[in-house]
Design a protein that fits this description.
With about 280 residues, this protein is of the alpha+beta class. The protein is built from eight helices and 13 strands. Strands 1, 2, 3, 4, 5, 6, 7, 8, 9, 10, 11, 12 and 13 form a 13-stranded mixed sheet that branches.
Length: about 280
């Protein structure tokens, strides 16, 4: 592969990667890249052929034992020529020795299995304007998440993610144009949700909640900050109550991926995950 090289992504590359993901129909958040870069500045790779970007991937390290692969894209004109697999191998090497997760689109899941990934659950994107009569949660106060001590937010997030990710979480919840809400009862967090602008429906993630009622309350509050109330949420089918809730609120499935890991799935409070944070970084 004369003329092919793999480099770290620049700020301009991060904007390019976002555009490529949009072309794939993934509808990433408009400002996701800023939080992504904070998570692991060296975790985004670009494959260049004679200087021209032709493929990308993210291989982000969390803590000492976990990594997540995303943004695995080869430009259509350069697929089937070995450039993507070269980049894939570099990403896997960067995360060597860690439990690795990813969200795989349907057409690539067999290839991921060949690389040692095992299916854990499906994430089904539900989209629409919340409607219906799904009950909310009595006695819960919905507040701006920024009004709470950050350590409290980070500790709550840790229940639903394999490693601490404080720098990422701080950026993810506070970037301009986003709204982060927390559900609080007697000083205790019972749910967190973030909505962010995208080129299509506004994306919600994460959406964590102690009960379906808390999730419904947060969802409606977040939708008030989305143009026309149109939102999309990537819902894990490992939490059956989540899919039931969103169907009852009138959101419909539009896209599906599989959460896969290279080893046993980490011990997470799946019953509290009503929407994953992102398909790109977990």
């Amino acid at each position: 592969m004369t003329g092919f090289e793999i480099t770290g992504a620049s700020a301009a590359d991060m904007e390019m990667i976002r555009g490529w993901a949009d072309e794939e129909g993934w509808n990433p958040g408009d400002s996701d890249r800023f939080a992504f870069a904070v998570a692991d500045p060296e975790g985004f790779l670009v494959g260049r052929l004679d200087g021209e970007p032709v493929a990308c991937v993210s291989a982000v390290r969390y803590g000492a034992g976990f990594g997540f692969i995303g943004f695995y894209i080869a430009r259509p004109a350069f697929r089937g020529q070995g450039y993507g697999i070269r980049l894939w191998d570099a990403a896997m090497e960067r995360l060597d020795g860690r439990l690795i997760g990813l969200d795989g689109v349907v057409e690539q899941q067999d290839n991921y299995r060949k690389s040692g990934f095992r299916h854990a659950w499906n994430n089904v994107r539900h989209e629409g304007v919340p409607q219906g009569e799904a009950a909310g949660a009595d006695g819960v106060e919905v507040v701006d998440a920024a009004s709470l001590p950050f350590g409290q937010l980070a500790a709550y997030d840790r229940r639903f993610f394999p490693e601490a990710r404080d720098a990422f979480l701080s950026a993810w919840t506070a970037l301009p144009g986003r709204t982060a809400l927390a559900a609080v009862r007697d000083g205790r967090i019972e749910g967190i949700g973030v909505v962010r602008p995208s080129s299509g429906a506004s994306r919600i993630g994460p959406l964590y909640a102690a009960t379906a009622g808390v999730a419904a309350t947060l969802l409606r509050g977040l939708a008030e900050h989305a143009p026309g109330g149109l939102v999309s949420v990537d819902v894990p089918d490992a939490n059956p109550e989540a899919a039931t809730l969103f169907a009852g609120l009138g959101l419909v499935p539009v896209f599906e991926t599989a959460r896969m890991y290279t080893g046993p799935a980490p011990a997470l409070e799946l019953a509290g995950i009503y929407g994953v944070t992102s398909l790109e970084l977990g």
